[in-house]
Fold this sequence. Notes:
With about 300 residues, this protein is α/β, with parallel strands linked by helices. About 30% of the residues lie in helices and about 25% in strands.
Amino acid sequence: xxxxxxxxxxxxxxxxxxxxxxxxxxxxxxxxxxxxxxxxxxxxxxxxxxxxxxxxxxxxxxxxxxxxxxxxxxxxxxxxxxxxxxxxxxxxxxxxxxxxxxxxxxxxxxxxxxxxxxxxxxxxxxxxxxxxxxxxxxxxxxxxxxxxxxxxxxxxxxxxxxxxxxxxxxxxxxxxxxxxxxxxxxxxxxxxxxxxxxxxxxxxxxxxxxxxxxxxxxxxxxxxxxxxxxxxxxxxxxxxxxxxxxxxxxxxxxxxxxxxxxxxxxxxxxxxxxxxxxxxxxxxxxxxxxxxxxxx
Length: 296
């Protein structure tokens, strides 16, 4: 589901040519998240307009975002929906912030925070223009590849931490910890599918069209324990690895159905560096194993 029958979709290409260093699948995910957000804002219908242009960014416009001047490709996603006030606009990219009532729209409000992380990771920035009742415009600026932009300030390039482009499913019922996981992983380049509900995770796996390479889950979740969730997800992705998060002492893990010799464990508390190194080790191990007949 993307554009409803009561929403007109307009695609406006550009005559300019500009190559950008952006992963194709991540860009597709970015457009999808912005389009879903726009459609949710137009409950009674309207127009979704997606446009691409090439501009020469000057110092004045780039300074508030810490962006260098030069040629940029601009992806604009505009809607004629309900719009946002100043407070909502300033918080639009916060994980779990949403203007929707419980049970409406796409749920957790993660889409825009992921968009923000992906754009920053690729050396770009975002402008948001919106007023209540007047719709919203999201403009994503990506430096042209021939402009030799300064590398991104956030993410793996700036901090020297390992990253990647694989898709990771994150299931954690502690909202604050889930927010930290999403931010850390997306800034490192990963595509993240996230939820605080183990039951919701199972439906996300069925709906996801691409491959999920890694599951990160808390061992002790009330609805569906981490080991049980992992077993069920491995039925769909038998070659996926699993990293369990746990605050339990090692001797207590067996009570939760965890065989420590056959899993990757990330003990709480952990740093961003410990998280990213553990994730990279697990993914690299999976790439060296046959897809079938191996326990992640």
